[in-house]
Amino acid sequence: MTRAVVPGSFDPPTLGHFDVITRAADVFQEVLIAVVQNPSKTPLFTAEERVAMLRDVAAEWSNVEAEAFEGLLVDFARERSAAVIVKGLRAMSDFEYELQMAQMNHHLSGVHTLFLPTSPEHAYLSSSLVKDVARLGGSLDGLVSAAVAAQLKERYS
Amino acid sequence: MTRAVVPGSFDPPTLGHFDVITRAADVFQEVLIAVVQNPSKTPLFTAEERVAMLRDVAAEWSNVEAEAFEGLLVDFARERSAAVIVKGLRAMSDFEYELQMAQMNHHLSGVHTLFLPTSPEHAYLSSSLVKDVARLGGSLDGLVSAAVAAQLKERYS
Amino acid sequence: MTRAVVPGSFDPPTLGHFDVITRAADVFQEVLIAVVQNPSKTPLFTAEERVAMLRDVAAEWSNVEAEAFEGLLVDFARERSAAVIVKGLRAMSDFEYELQMAQMNHHLSGVHTLFLPTSPEHAYLSSSLVKDVARLGGSLDGLVSAAVAAQLKERYS
Amino acid sequence: MTRAVVPGSFDPPTLGHFDVITRAADVFQEVLIAVVQNPSKTPLFTAEERVAMLRDVAAEWSNVEAEAFEGLLVDFARERSAAVIVKGLRAMSDFEYELQMAQMNHHLSGVHTLFLPTSPEHAYLSSSLVKDVARLGGSLDGLVSAAVAAQLKERYS
Amino acid sequence: MTRAVVPGSFDPPTLGHFDVITRAADVFQEVLIAVVQNPSKTPLFTAEERVAMLRDVAAEWSNVEAEAFEGLLVDFARERSAAVIVKGLRAMSDFEYELQMAQMNHHLSGVHTLFLPTSPEHAYLSSSLVKDVARLGGSLDGLVSAAVAAQLKERYS
Amino acid sequence: MTRAVVPGSFDPPTLGHFDVITRAADVFQEVLIAVVQNPSKTPLFTAEERVAMLRDVAAEWSNVEAEAFEGLLVDFARERSAAVIVKGLRAMSDFEYELQMAQMNHHLSGVHTLFLPTSPEHAYLSSSLVKDVARLGGSLDGLVSAAVAAQLKERYS
């Protein structure tokens, strides 16, 4: 049985993130979404809020869970007995940074990272672009779930 | 139990390919190396020779096998009940072409492709570069296994 | 009134090409699809066949025409009084080559090239990948029009 | 008649920006330079100053105007009846971000984005690099217009 | 006799930086490591501390020195009679930014920049990633020298 | 005294190649242009013709020579006591392939490769694009020297 960790900021989760989680849940026996809790950054949503948003989604699958973590991702992966890290890839600029992280994480721990391409229709989605659209009053249809859209609108109103 | 197909030309397999196979064997319960048999190309080694080279390597793991295939990769993957395709990634230029293939394969069959980064010290290895070195009489140490090196030298002598 | 030339091999035209033509027809008053007739290459379909495939599509708009050309694209553009060249862009690897061509064409003639991104769901489509799928007996649904699919199947049967 | 919006921060406008505006004015009947007014960023020059710098330049063409805007670019484009967004492209790293923006803007509004390559000799110019040079006392010849250079020197003295 | 300037922030120097310095010391008669002292940024280590770390390393070669500088790099290079700037390159994303800087520096001064690829096993190393690992308590073996590791641990304890 | 080898096909040499040679002659005490003689390719000009074209150019500097070679570049570099390989870089797609070659050459011999960016106005020039323009009857002004242009016209007439 292989447990995969899917790390990210998810501030907020987009439909692109949900797509990667769906694909990971298809491939691995257990999927653990790991929400980065970085004390030096100020996210729009707290780690608790982001975990709650992801648990709403995770409820659709029996093999997906979500949790926040602090510290090194590879330490968290080992504590949770996860064999691999899985990251969505949208574009080449993602790839180079993620490759650097993957090689650092392998150097630190021997844990492998696998990359899952997002579906093409979500390739232009990012949490920061979604926040810009929300802040400027644009429609969030097709970008995030209805539940996340409601929370974004409330936050920027 | 997840079976992963690792496709490629492997003409010949390099230490970079062996590195990807090792990583795949760590992560998935069963790994099936799928050697492309393309009637319109003239490889240096026949599909049978390439399968034999890979079986030598596969013998080190109990969960790795090698086989040649013709036709669409996704048809082969489904016939062999493989849930995912796994590809090694060395560099950004690989990535863009491989992403295109991954999205086409998902469109054709719903089968997901996962990308595994090669270890950094193998990032500059490719079968065609190795063949150039062999043809021009350079040392093959650190590029291919001793068995593959012997066959390359024989072929170019 | 601005006339735009949309050049390409279109061997065969994919749904991605149709998407770029649609977008060009939205933006420019006249669109002239220019089919490259390169005597040194052996396409699957003759220039006449490719022009016919594109005219079928062009018939949907009152402002789109298709024609074959030989020689320098910028000479053809000037003969047809086209002010700009318009190219679809799918991916970064396209971009670098196309940028080189655009700068060469501007150097030779002063004609500007504008790039139109394809819709994300067509980003993985290319004529050569479509020919591979057709040759190996895969489904062409969602890749090319029904008319083009029929001609591809006939060619590879 | 096609009106094109050319958006940007232009903090300050460089000779590369002027080159893109010139090319856009060649191709489109009307060009509207749209200066981003982002309340969460602290530019070196106010939106009014940047619009004034661009109007100096725009005065050379009868079909170019400049204006500041707040909010979503696609809302501004529709209010001004602009059919297309035109962006200069210098390099591949620009391209990936701009492609993401173009696809988001098309998703939000159906407005198309066209990319215009800058001339090669301006490919290394960016507003932030120009500000670094000015701040450190380097020569601004060949980077910005004499008028903009004067304002940069004043600002950093 | 050719003197080369190797500029950087080196906050802190990694084994990848040492690798580039070694290679530069092989190729050029004199190597001057130039530590950027940027008053608008807050580095983890002062310019003096970074110069000291690099001098420890420079002591291994008779032809390498380290110094801090303020202002334009090309002014510093000319003051020190350096004929070329040498930069390590790890990855494509580095390359595009560095190419822009190289062309700006050549425009400002006529000084050429040469790029030296880092060894593949250091391609994933960057000062900022190393600081993240140190901050989160990860092992610094294989990332920085023992002396730099000790200073990083002290800083983050 | 440092001798640098500048390898390439130079089929034919463009103004971009001359620009790189000029830059190399500025930086290194001796420059040896190494013309690849690949028996498996059919160039437009023989190795002798290409060496002659380059010697015409080399005559402008006292420290530049040109020679053809067969076999591994690193063997040639060592026979000629060259300490470094110098390559021009135009664009990111060049970079990735050249980085792979540089790392292979370092693995085979310990010889370092340095990359020299071409001037921006030559970034779109390549020998193959120049041959296309010549074959289709376009003007060669600003692409190659007058002497090379004359030979290209003769070859394609």
What kind of oligomer do you see? homohexamer
Number of helices, counting only DSSP H or I runs of 4 residues or more of chain A: 6
What is the chain-wise order of helices and strands of chain A?
A: EHEHEHEHEHH
Overall pLDDT confidence of chain A: 93
Radius of gyration of chain A: 15 Å
**Roughly what percent helix of chain A?**
40-55%
Principal-axis shape of chain A equals globular
Strand order across the largest sheet of chain A: 3-2-1-4-5
CATH superfamily of chain A: HUPs
The largest contact between protein chains, plus residue counts on each side, is:
A-B, 25 and 25 residues
CATH topology of chain A, anyone? Rossmann fold
The biggest sheet of chain A amounts to: 5 strands, parallel
**CATH structural class of chain A:** Alpha Beta
Number of strands of chain A: 5
Helical/strand content category of chain A: alpha/beta
- CATH architecture assignment name of chain A: 3-Layer(aba) Sandwich
Strand content of chain A: 15-25%
Distance between the termini of chain A: 45 Å
Contiguous low-pLDDT stretches of chain A (5 residues minimum) are none
- Total count of domains of chain A: 1
